[in-house]
Every structure is written in structure tokens, then in C-alpha cells.
Amino acid sequence: MQSSSMSLATTALLLALLASTVSSTVIHICNHYVDEVHLSWDVSAPEMRQPVHTVLLYDQCVDEQMLPGWSGAFFAGLVNNSHAVGGWRNFDTKVEFSINPADGVDWFDVSHIAGFSLPMIVSGGDVVAGCAVDKLINCPVGWQARPSPDGPVVQCRNDGSQAAYDFFVFKCPNTYVRFNDDAQGTKAATGSPNYLDVSIGLGSTGVAAIVPPKVDSCIACTAVPPP
């Protein structure tokens, strides 16, 4: 019995030491775009983080600490994109993460598979995903989505056509635009470990927004129904 007790105590000590060596990854998110940006989190490991809706004001930043093994994403939008409003957020710019999986690397991507709402850059060391192109500018009418009939364009939706692919990848070689784009869109962090930087909008560099080309013909466009 004494031996068993010692064994349990030793196991508990080893587990405590192991836990102390596990470091979380900080996801640092800043809004440099407009007055208000909405972040709607989603997860594939809900026991590690509950879905949450966050509002970032202009030049406001937030740090989110994620434990190794966490996989999930957030949608960034110009209007309320919380779970309460349903599927609207699915067409916002999406950022996906897989923190320290089996290979010990933080993976991330910026996805426009369903649509675009905000220009965004994610960096892990010297590796970058996303781009600073504002796709709401010159977004074809058939792909535009507005919160109300007379409201501003807040999403440019990807209808999956070749025309849409060409539009969304223009000046954006490091984004996820269609399924199985892993080689182009998915990135692995390098350099400083356990820290990912997310810049919404132009960021502190002050680089001017890049205007994508106009799509003069919308023959290939699919009209977007009201949400």
C-alpha cells in the first residue's frame, strides 16, 4: 500500500512538472481598419474554449491565449456576426489556427473560401498569411452583401466560380480561396515561438490599400440572396 501511495505521488509530481512546461500561444489581434470590428470565435475543441463574440474599436487590440492542442477559428466582420445572428458570419473573412499539434508547430491561414469582409494579415515570425487588399472595393454587384437594402457593402461573397477565384487571389497569393489550397494558404509559424500577430486593416505600417481590378462582366457571377 505504501509503494502504491508513493507511486501515485510520483505520478502527480511528474504531471505537475509536465504541465508547468506547457506554454500557451498568444494570438495578438489589432483593429487598424474602421471604428468597430466584430470577432466571432468558433472552435473544434470546445472544452478548451467557449465560443465568444468580441468587439474591437479602432486601434484597439486584444490578446487571446490558446493552449497547445487547441484548434479553432474566428470570423472578422463589419456588423454583428455573433452566433445569435445565425449564418451571416460564415461569409466574413475567417482566420483558422491549429496550435502546437503533434509536430509542435503553430499553423494558421486566412480564408476567403466563402467570402471577404476585412483585409487581414496574420504573421508568425517571418511567415505571413492573408493580404492588405480591400476586396470590398470593386466587388461585383452580384457578390455584394449588405445588412439592409440601402446599407453599405459589408461582404464580398465567393460564389466558387473561376471569376471569383481570379478576383480573390489578385495580389493575395497567401490566402485560402478554395478548398484544398493548403500549399497556397496554410502557413506554419517560424521565428519567435508561441506568438501570432493578427492585423485587421492597414496596420502600423501605413501601407495604402490595394484596389483590385474591376470585373466588368458579371456573366459568371451568382446573385447573392438576402441573409
From TrEMBL:
| PROSITE patterns reported for this sequence | THAUMATIN_2
At the top level, the lineage of the source is Eukaryota
Q: Gene3D superfamilies, per this entry?
A: Thaumatin
The secretion signal range is 1-24
A matching Pfam family: Thaumatin
Per UniProt, which keywords does this protein have?
A: Signal
> Which InterPro entries does the entry link to?
Osmotin/thaumatin-like_sf (IPR037176), Thaumatin (IPR001938)
Q: Does the keyword Signal apply?
A: yes
- The protein depicted here goes by the name Thaumatin-like protein
- UniProt source species: Oleoguttula mirabilis
